[in-house]
Structure formats: structure tokens, C-alpha cells
Automatic annotation (TrEMBL):
Residues 375-459 form the DUF7586 domain. It holds the Pfam family DUF7586. Its EC number is 3.1.1.103. This is Serine hydrolase domain-containing protein.
Length: 479
């Protein structure tokens, strides 16, 4: 077996401290041995750049000379294809080519328009794995991951009402078939095959130069490892046809690092999709909570979301015959990890352990505090307010303010100026997301109270001068 020492991508800048790199390489090497992986590669992303890369094992097939993985080596990323397709679609959404609430049949009329038809499902439901559409295409052929696939003309007739497994919008249900539909949608919107649209709208702008749609001469051989003996079996590779948008992309570690930078919102990936589109992609649309024990995994728009005791990560996992891949980005820090192996059965929590080791060994330094300007219409609102007897506080933020409970449980939301320019503020999250806040002023122009969806927030508890709720009782506060 061969291995490659940790090194940063030559195009991307700084590396980690040697002691940190040694710890990370040891984790990777241990995983390769313990899980009997023919080859494994991994990389860490910080500030939008690949800061560490390492590999173990050989990418060769049986009977071939051993070959160490290189930064240019392609691995099959399986379902990580889905967030790439979703990114291309959200770019089309930014361009006004469709709405998330559009019935997909509006763009693919062959899927029907009656309520029971697949065409009645919305694009947002399909992207968010909440459409209720069947997981696989059992009506249109055999196991799609392991056999060559037919084209859209062969798949579409099988997408009848019988392909719907659950009422749309009511539960998380992972659907590879749904992304076949979304791939065809992308093709129709852009007037070219889905993979050409993906190349032009995502892979090329991000500089994912090694990413592609089939195995090439610099790709790892996909292998199955016998469960009870140290022998391997070559796995098949083919064009999945209409199902390809669910999992056919191949990519290198630097390629995936560039996509991780996009999910992290790094300036290095700016301009591919809008900030609002990225926010929608990484916000849970449906959660997987089958036993009511508290959700651990959810789905945004083409992006998996993990909830680890309140810690949020976004990205996706992927598997295809001969390969396992994982990409995760820590939402709070922006640090990301990608790991890929040339084995049908792969690693467990290796990506997360690599990410945690980076955070522990080289924690991010907080940005130094410094004064920053606050708009006059925000400065006049900061400080305590009261919702009846419940204390709240307004704190200024870079482009708005935060209204939160003070010292006891209470509703809280961030607010930004309404795009209508009417002087109101719009809630961005939590209970007040999308709701409007209006500052009601006295005759002299000073704030009297806040009107938030009819709730009154006043500067004193139950301000008797407020119309609602007023002093509540004319006797006032008393023992």
C-alpha cells in the first residue's frame, strides 16, 4: 500500500501546523486499516481554502501496480451530485426561470397536472425531499445504481400517481427518483442536457476543474471488499441515464473543497448563487424524526442538514458501487471537510472526527471587537422593552437588530428593514419570521411603542399610556 503525506492544494495557500497535520493523517491511516479501505482521501477547508489534504492506500484495481491517490484523482461522489444539481437549479431560480412553489408539471407537462399526478408536486417539495415521491424507479427498470439507465422518455411514463408514496409536504422521504425529475427540469429550463447545464452554471464557475460525469484515466478504481476475507471485487461503472442527476458526478478533493466553500458562504465562491438562495438551500425544509426522539438529520433544498445537539452542519453524503463520499460544513465556524473512499462500504464518522480535530488543534481566533456605526433608527430602539410584564431587549446588529427575551424564556427574532421601503422591519427567523414590526411614534417623532403583528412592546411594563394593553387595571401595580 502507498500513502501521500499531508499537503495543501498548491493553488490554495496555507497549510496547518505539522503537529495538527500528523494527528489528522493518523486518523486517516487508522480508518484505512480498521475499515479495510483500498484508498481513502480527505481534505479540510477553512476560509474557503483547502488547508490540508492527505491520502492512504492505492487507487489501482486488482492485479495493477499500486498507485497513490493525488489531488487530481477523481472519486465517485454519488449523492453529493444532488446539492450540485440543486445549486444549478437555484441559480436558475435567481434568474427568475421558475418559482419554488411551481408545480413541476408546469415545466414538465408530461407528468400531468391533476392533484394526484407527479406533475402536481412542487419544485420546492422535490428539492426538499418532502414530495412523497418513491425512493427508487421501480416502475422503469432494475437497480439503477448497478445497471445502465434509460433516458427520460423511458422513465417519465412510470411516474404515475402510483409513484407517490406519501402526501406531499407532510414528511421527509428521500427520493432518488425526485432528482431524476429535477435533472430533467434543469435541462428544460436551460435548453441543454442537465450535465451541460451543471458544467456551465456550477462546476466551471467554482473552478471544479477535475469534476466530470464518467470515470477517466485518473480516477480511482471502485472496489467491493469481501466482508470476511482481504480480497476485492471490481464494481461496475456506467451511465445511469435519466437517474444520473441523483448520483453520477466524479470529483477530486480540491473540487469538493470549492463546493464546501460555497455552502459555507465563503467569498471565494461568491456569485454562483445569491446569499438568499444559499440560505434557502441550507435551511431545513423537512426533518427525519421517525421515532419522535428529536431530529438529527434534515434536508434543505438539495442539502442535508445535521443537528448534533444544537450544532448544525450542512453538506451531503454519497454512495455508489465502489465508492463512499462525505462533505460537511460547520455552519458556525464555516470549516468544512470532504472525505472519499474507493470502497462500496466506507467510513463511519471519519469526516466529523477530522473536522473536530481541526477545531480542537487550531481553534479559530475570534475577530477583534471594534466600534461600528449604528443607524439612527436602530440606535433609538436599543435597550429594554416589555411585552406585558415580560422583559425583552433590542440589540443592534450589522444591518438591523435582534429582539430577544431578557433573563427568561421569550420569543426572539432578528429583524431587517423591509424591502418595500415603508419604514417597517421584517422578521428573519424563529416565531416572527416574515412578520412585520412597525415603530409607532409620538407627535414629537420619538418611539412610543413597537407594533409587532398586533403585539405591543412598550418601554415600561404595561405602559398605562399605551392603547393596548394599557395599564390593564386602573388601580395600577400594588401589593
Amino acid at each position: 500500500m502507498t500513502d501521500t503525506a499531508p499537503t495543501p492544494d498548491p493553488a490554495d495557500g496555507t497549510s496547518l501546523r505539522p503537529a495538527t497535520a500528523d494527528r489528522l493523517l493518523h486518523l486517516l491511516a487508522r480508518e484505512q486499516v480498521d475499515r479495510r479501505l483500498p484508498s481513502v482521501v480527505a481534505g479540510l477547508v477553512r476560509d474557503g481554502r483547502l488547508v490540508w489534504w492527505a491520502a492512504r492506500g492505492s487507487t489501482s484495481g486488482p492485479g495493477e501496480p499500486p498507485a497513490a491517490p493525488a489531488p487530481t484523482t477523481r472519486y465517485r461522489i454519488g449523492s453529493i451530485t444532488k446539492p450540485l444539481v440543486a445549486t444549478a437549479l437555484m441559480r436558475a431560480h435567481d434568474a427568475g426561470l421558475f418559482d419554488l412553489d411551481d408545480a413541476v408539471g408546469r415545466h414538465l407537462p408530461e407528468l400531468g397536472s391533476d392533484r394526484a399526478d407527479v406533475g402536481a408536486l412542487t419544485v420546492g417539495q422535490l428539492l426538499g425531499q418532502a414530495s412523497g415521491l418513491q425512493a427508487e424507479n421501480d416502475g422503469a427498470g432494475p437497480w439503477w445504481e448497478r445497471t445502465p439507465g434509460g433516458d427520460w422518455a423511458a422513465l417519465a411514463p412510470a411516474l404515475t400517481a402510483d409513484a407517490r408514496r406519501h402526501r406531499p409536504g407532510t414528511r421527509f422521504h428521500y427520493s432518488n427518483t425526485g432528482f431524476a425529475v429535477l435533472g430533467e427540469l434543469l435541462a428544460r429550463l436551460r435548453g441543454r442536457p442537465w450535465h451541460e447545464a451543471l458544467q456551465a452554471d456550477v462546476l466551471d464557475p467554482l473552478g471544479m476543474d477535475r469534476a466530470g460525469f464518467r470515470r477517466d484515466e485518473d480516477s480511482a478504481a471502485g472496489l467491493a471488499v469481501h466482508p470476511w476475507a482481504d480480497v476485492v471485487l471490481p464494481e461496475p461503472e456506467h451511465d445511469a441515464g435519466a437517474m444520473a442527476p441523483a448520483g453520477q458526478v466524479w470529483a477530486s478533493v480540491p473540487d469538493m473543497a470549492r463546493f464546501a466553500a460555497l455552502l459555507a458562504g465563503s467569498p471565494t465562491a461568491a456569485g454562483v448563487v445569491s446569499d438568499e438562495a444559499r440560505r434557502l438551500m441550507t435551511t431545513p425544509q423537512a426533518v427525519d424524526d421517525p421515532r419522535g426522539a428529536g431530529w438529527g438529520v434534515g434536508y434543505g433544498l438539495g442539502v442535508q442538514v445535521w443537528n448534533l445537539a444544537g450544532r448544525r452542519l450542512v453538506g451531503h453524503g454519497g454512495s455508489m458501487p465502489g465508492f463512499i463520499a462525505g462533505l460537511q460544513v460547520d455552519v458556525a465556524s464555516g470549516d468544512g471537510v470532504v472525505a472519499m473512499t474507493s470502497s462500496t462500504t466506507g467510513f463511519g464518522d471519519l469526516p466529523l472526527r477530522l473536522l473536530d480535530t481541526l477545531a480542537e488543534a487550531e481553534p479559530r481566533l475570534p475577530e477583534p471587537w471594534s466600534p461600528s456605526p449604528v443607524a439612527d433608527d436602530v440606535l433609538e430602539l436599543v435597550g429594554p422593552w416589555y411585552w406585558g410584564p415580560s422583559p425583552l431587549v433590542v440589540r443592534s446588529e450589522a444591518d438591523g437588530f435582534l429582539l430577544e427575551g431578557l433573563g427568561r424564556p421569550g420569543r426572539s427574532s432578528r429583524f431587517r428593514r423591509s424591502p418595500t421601503g415603508d419604514g417597517t422591519w421584517v422578521g428573519l427567523d424563529a416565531y416572527y419570521a416574515g412578520e412585520r414590526l412597525r415603530v409607532v411614534r409620538r407627535g414629537d417623532g420619538t418611539p412610543s411603542h413597537l407594533d409587532l403583528s398586533t403585539f405591543r412592546m412598550t418601554r415600561t411594563p404595561y405602559d398605562p399610556a399605551a392603547d393596548v394593553p394599557g395599564g390593564v387595571d386602573e388601580g395600577g401595580w400594588r401589593a
